[in-house]
DNA sequence: TTAGGGTTAG
């Protein structure tokens, strides 16, 4: 697979037929009526040129060698034009440069700057900066003056290896010899600085450019988006005089990537209103934004948009992968599976999204089966995200041994180095399984410094297994990494509370107050069939139906008690008496949302509840038993994952 | 000759 193709790839590979042109070439010279040698030569050059052009779509090294054979046989291996074209084709097809160009350019007697530039550019795209520079040296030795393309290629090479110093040198050299000769040289310069991580330098070039085009703007907008600076991106975008589809797409995907889905949708709508059509990339950004909103209303909208533009998931891998993720996040993992199965071409994004989808719905075995299928039956190579998915699947179901094996195999079998994210999964896996000490030992063996994620996973596990001693170690580190995240302090406070250590609770509360942090109120919400959202807050009895909700809950508690339900008072971390605890429990937001759904939806429909924080143990038991007595399927999404309650049991197998 | 890309854990 070529670099160029793998990026844009969504269509099937077309076989190419070079036989016809080859035959014509063989006949040429024998049957030609041309009188002069130069005429024959010109015809040959044209024919060979079109032969090379046929390779442009897709071809392999063998076909290129075949064509090169024709070139030599027809005596065109000295033609600068033909050889330049051949090298450009090699580059376009991603065929490794070495040892081709050196051998191919050798016979060319009069090498012009375009030939050299094609070679330099080929090495640049390959990321072989040493050869690119060496070729530039050879070119200068022949006293050939570089053209703007040449500098563009050299700057590209610096960008592809992220060599800022070298990039600066070529910037200076370009400027000395050519100045801002063309917009695209400036554009390449901006791209180089962006790739080297120096957005300020890129901005400086932008500001100094005498002339800019929409590409100049889009590059910088995308660069700001990539570093999470959507404010600057938006400012720049608004001052862009003529916005094209790529520029709009940069904004849509930028907002989607920076967890601002609502803004992404707004920009998408604005784009359509201004009469610009979306393409596959824009639609994928739109879908990603809908996925983050996690509501079926948006899922329907995303599907409509994809259909409107004619992008079916079966033929468009980017759309398909985005839809898998979206359906999973909206709670409809079955539909995610349907999309996955309908896709004609699947890549690592499709597999990883599906594996993560299974993982977040507690379907660990399917996640593992898919992973094993992928590595044994397809050519798709797992990447770092794939492993996050598989390890998450293991940790959410307590598959400690499988998780360990996969973690070890990452590097050994697949050459993927474990990152802090993978350690986070492992700490979570061991921690949830109650192996807190082992978890802590694993953190000590890490080759990179553990970050907030790792310590957070350990602290979370300490909450499940009520271990204040290890919690204190984790919290100490975690508070250094994430001093302003209130949830971490609440976690520690709850651990102290469960252990009856009210002094500990008090000290954490003081810390929170000192830092001026505000507690995130718990909230649950459901969306009715009209797309209307109903949000519930703890103990909030202001809802128009609150009397009915309360009555429904009381009745439900009675029915559940027959099945053995006892309020789990340890889920309440306030220092109040037992009656107070019972009252707090029955007014947990997800229970209010459940009662509302029971009152307002038909008996055969699935109930879908969303929550912004982790569900407590009592609510989990409550939902499980409620699914039994009511005969309803309840899907509950908390801040981490989905639980599917059906006939008295949960998809997580009560391990969560 | 230059631009936009979908999946990431506690």
TrEMBL record:
Can you tell which superkingdom this protein's organism belongs to?
Answer: Eukaryota
In its keyword annotation, does this UniProt entry include Flavoprotein? no
InterPro entries in UniProt:
DYW_dom (IPR032867), E_motif (IPR046848), PPR_At4g14850-like_plant (IPR046960), PPR_rpt (IPR002885), TPR-like_helical_dom_sf (IPR011990)
PPR repeats by residue range: 112-146, 182-212, 213-243, 244-278, 347-381
The taxonomy runs: Eukaryota, Viridiplantae, Streptophyta, Embryophyta, Tracheophyta
Provenance organism: Arabis nemorensis
In the record, biological process GO terms are: RNA modification
**Annotated DYW domain residues:** 564-656
Assigned keywords, A-Z: Repeat
Q: What is this protein called?
A: DYW domain-containing protein
């Amino acid at each position: 697979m070529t670099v160029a193709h793998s990026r844009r790839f969504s269509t099937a590979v077309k076989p190419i037929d070079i036989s016809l042109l080859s035959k014509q070439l063989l006949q040429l010279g024998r049957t030609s009526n041309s009188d002069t040698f130069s005429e024959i030569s010109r015809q040959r050059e044209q024919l060979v040129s079109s032969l090379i052009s046929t390779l442009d779509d897709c071809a392999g090294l063998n076909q290129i060698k075949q064509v090169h054979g024709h070139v030599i046989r027809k005596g065109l291996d000295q033609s600068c034009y033909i050889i330049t074209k051949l090298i450009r084709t090699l580059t376009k097809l991603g065929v490794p440069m070495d040892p081709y160009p050196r051998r191919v350019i050798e016979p060319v007697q009069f090498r012009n700057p375009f030939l050299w530039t094609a070679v330099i550019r080929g090495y640049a795209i390959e990321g072989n900066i040493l050869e690119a520079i060496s070729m530039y040296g050879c070119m200068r030795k022949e006293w050939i003056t570089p053209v703007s393309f040449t500098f563009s290629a050299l700057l590209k090479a610096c960008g592809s290896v992220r060599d800022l110093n070298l990039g600066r040198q070529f910037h200076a050299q370009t400027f000395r010899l050519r100045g801002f000769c063309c917009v695209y040289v400036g554009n390449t310069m901006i791209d180089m600085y962006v790739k080297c991580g120096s957005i300020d330098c890129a901005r400086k070039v932008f500001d100094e450019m005498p002339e800019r085009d929409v590409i100049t703007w889009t590059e910088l907008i995308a660069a700001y988006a990539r570093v999470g600076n959507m404010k600057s991106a938006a400012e720049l975008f608004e001052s862009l005089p003529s916005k094209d589809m790529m520029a709009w797409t940069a904004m849509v995907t930028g907002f989607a990537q920076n967890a601002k889905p609502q803004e992404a949708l707004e920009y998408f709508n604005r784009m359509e209103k201004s009469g610009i059509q979306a393409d596959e990339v824009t639609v994928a950004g739109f879908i990603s934004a809908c996925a983050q909103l996690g509501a079926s209303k948006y899922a329907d909208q995303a599907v409509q948009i994809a259909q409107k533009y004619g992008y079916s998931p079966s033929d468009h891998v980017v759309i398909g992968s985005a839809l898998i993720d979206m359906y999973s996040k909206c709670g409809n993992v079955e539909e995610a599976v349907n999309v996955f199965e309908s896709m004609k071409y699947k890549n690592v994004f499709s597999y990883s999204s599906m594996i993560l989808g299974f993982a977040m719905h507690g379907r660990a075995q399917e996640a593992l089966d898919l992973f094993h299928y992928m590595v044994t039956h397809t050519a798709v190579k797992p990447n770092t995200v794939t492993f996050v998915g598989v390890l998450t699947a293991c940790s959410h179901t307590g598959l400690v041994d499988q998780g360990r094996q996969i973690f070890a195999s990452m590097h050994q079998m697949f050459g993927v180095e474990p990152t802090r994210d993978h350690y986070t999964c492992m700490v979570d896996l061991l921690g949830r399984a109650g192996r807190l000490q082992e978890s802590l030992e694993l953190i000590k063996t890490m080759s990179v410094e553990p970050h907030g994620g790792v310590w957070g996973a350990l602290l979370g596990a300490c909450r499940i297994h009520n271990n204040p001693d290890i919690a204190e170690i984790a919290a100490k580190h975690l508070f250094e990494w994430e001093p302003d995240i209130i949830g971490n302090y609440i976690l520690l406070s709850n651990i102290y509370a469960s252990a009856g250590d009210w002094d500990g609770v008090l000290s954490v509360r003081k810390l929170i107050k000192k830092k001026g942090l505000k507690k995130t109120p718990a909230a649950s919400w459901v969306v009715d069939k009209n797309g209307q959202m109903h949000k519930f807050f703890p103990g909030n009895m202001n809802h128009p139906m609150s009397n009915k909700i309360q009555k429904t809950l009381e009745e439900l508690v009675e029915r559940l008690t027959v099945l053995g339900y006892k309020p789990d008072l340890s889920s309440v971390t306030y220092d109040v008496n037992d009656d107070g605890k019972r009252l707090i429990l029955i007014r947990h937001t997800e229970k209010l949302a459940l009662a509302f759904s029971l009152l307002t939806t038909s008996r055969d429909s699935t109930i879908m509840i969303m929550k912004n924080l982790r569900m407590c143990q009592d609510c989990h038991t409550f939902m499980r038993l409620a699914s039994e007595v009511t005969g309803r399927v309840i899907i509950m999404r908390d801040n981490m994952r989905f639980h599917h309650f059906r006939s008295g049991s949960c998809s997580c197998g009560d391990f969560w």
